[in-house]
Queue: 2 jobs
Job 1
Amino acid sequence: MGHRRSAVKRLAHRRGGMMALGRLFAIGLAALMPSSSIAAASDAEWPCQQRLVPVLTAGMIWNGPPIDDVGDWRADPRVTELVEHIVPRDIGPEQGEAAIAAFAEQLGSDKARPITLAFSGLLTETNHERAEVIERIKDLGERQRNLAALIDRLTTELGAMTDAEHGDVSPARDELQQRLTYTSRTYAEVQRTMRYACQVPVSLDARLGAYARALESALH
Amino acid sequence: MVNNSIARTIRSFPELVRRVLLAWAVVALATTIANAETVLVSNEKGNSISVFDAASLKMMKTIPVGQRPRGIILSKDQHTLYICASDNDEIEQLDLDTYKLKPPLPSGADPETFALHPDGRHLYVSNEGNSLVSIVDIEQRRIVGEIPVGVEPEGIGISPDGKWIVNTSETTSMAHFIDNEAHKVVANVLVDSRPRHAEWTSDGKEVWVSSEIGGSVSVIDAGSHQVTHKIKFEVSGVPKEAVQAVGIAITGDRKLAFVALGPANRVAVVDAASYEVKKYLLVGQRVWNLAFNHDQSRLYTTNGISNDISEIDVPNLKVLRSVVAGEQPWGIVVRP
């Protein structure tokens, strides 16, 4: 996957002008697709470097009591309050861990059930958050694929316009060049957004892991 | 000084007590020696190397290095750490006695992983961006050879006798066997999707290749270049997509192998003779690479999402603890 970054660096060094960038973004069409032609079917539209894991499960991160038969986490107001407080994306892990500590503090000796319920609620709600983010990233990926295809076509058309036929100051050539420049810039901007967006599921995974460890620690 | 003082004190006790205390002193001394080990971790996003005392797992130092450090290897004399600084397009050299960076080595484009030849003088670097393996002469600090390989070369392993190189190609899902004298690919072995890591057994008879998307390990006979066993991993309660085989560590006696399973957050323990999975150990999130300590009594893992490392008790197959590392820990080695 690192070839995408290095391809950018090499082309920036060796070539100038939008023709080169056009070719680069055409390469980006392939780069957008996860490699290995590419991954499993569920990964086909996934533009991020990390392989798509659509849903997190308790088995991946939870070392506490089983959650299957623990009941409905929404039935316990203490749990509901905690989950709703620390699930929004703008809550950092440290803030969430502090809230978990306060939640655990108020529990009596029979704390295993509410703690397990809390994990169940956090898992469910984090998966909802992730699912929304994943859909947005897939939309972004589709947009990039379309842009990359357009760049590929414009680059080919521009390359086919020989100087002999159109001259350096051909209006048609200028217009095509401008379209290519604009489309390439848009592609680059979306790509920057994509890099940030791809980190969001990773951050949610990391935060849920931190919450799971804080809850497990409160069990003992 | 402390040991002399202990000895003087022991001499003043009656015989039985003296023997007990002597035994204790021997254990204490052995512990002191074990304490000398350090665990070194590259932090891909933190652009740093974390240094841990292996006994206490206390972080002793964090050394800023180049951009996106991933693969790390100890020099043959164990006084230098070679670091693939992927976005700097170079291999950095960290002096492990002073913890200062020495002049870097060339690497070719986008170095991700590499392997040290048994001669201790040559590094073989996977250049993911241009489908090459670059051979770096460490003393001369220059690239002395390039071997064309498959698209997006990734894992790389050198046979214990230095005669064979195995390089995996992420895009073509192949393990390439390279004759290291002719510098030519002599066999291409198809493995499962997105091969990540190639690990030779200590006797040089097999190469184990992990496949991230395939979620498997292909065991390849080094003589016939045939896949003789395919090890699959299924973790109860964990979705198939999360089971991504990456780092591999095989004990020197070839009794056990450990395979990092990425976002499954497990290390699989495999009987290296029967190729059966014995156990899954829950570690930190997105476990990526593995390293034994000197006597292989401990195994350490880098966990890229939870930003920590885990310590595994090898004889008892138990996870002992996890401690915080830098941002996105990736490579790991233990310096004796």
Job 2
Amino acid sequence: MMSDDRTRERERLIAALLGPAGPELTCEECFEQLDRYVDVTLADRDPDRSVPGMRAHLIGCPACREDFDSLLEFVSGVDGDGRTPTASS
Amino acid sequence: MASEPVGASSSPADRLDAESRRWIDDLAGEGHAHAEAVARLHELLLGAARFEVARRRLALPHLRGGDHDDLAQQAAADALVAVLAKLDDFRGESRFTTWAYKFALYEAAVNLRRRAWQHRELPLEPDSWPDIASRALSPHEHVAESELLGALCEAINGALSAHQREVLVAITLNGVPIDVLAERLNTTRGPLYKTLHDARRKLRSCLSAAGLDFPRDDRGHAR
């Protein structure tokens, strides 16, 4: 178990240091496209084809990833009357 | 959920769903409808900002309940200004509310990340960096991964510029948020991420030159 944890930690470390391999958006482009990516994700309409480079950027940039997670969670919890969700953590 | 936006091939005006069109018309208009739309938008943005503050409250244990609401109110006010100023930039590629919410969540998140690091020294000096090499060396672990981490450690110290090293280590190893680092280094998120991107590319190139195998595909899913 300890060995599994260490392996996962080292994989995470290597991935964080090396970042994504493919082409990725910049932080500015990410912010511009974030709402579109979230709506397409929630509609199950192939977000990576709609916004190429977004997935790679979200893997490489922890802050943009947080922004994505937050918008996704929030928008998916807003009901038809615009009532807003409660934070899960 | 409200209706989906139409595909990206149509013009911005055609692309708007009915609800988004109403928002744009009311906000761009004048009089009572405009004032009412601004008030409604502020309410929505405040809900989003409160959500973000609640989501991150554990990272800010020293803040009191009143501080939380002040932060949310400030984020909502800043987001409202940003949304109204950028109304012409809305292309209808998402629902209007999704587009607007991102400003409130972003304003709250940036503010909260800065608060969380407000009185903390940023670990930028080499002697405060985590010891990557020690994590690499373990007789019970895979030799290849240990070798890879050892080579990464060497490349970080030998191939990167001091600035690239600072940015890479702060963001990826020490968990410093990029906007906090940007503020301390008197720059913005964009150039800093470019530095991180260039540093990573250099590390990959060093590993390739050393003939080492490393993950080349983007693993994991955004969702």
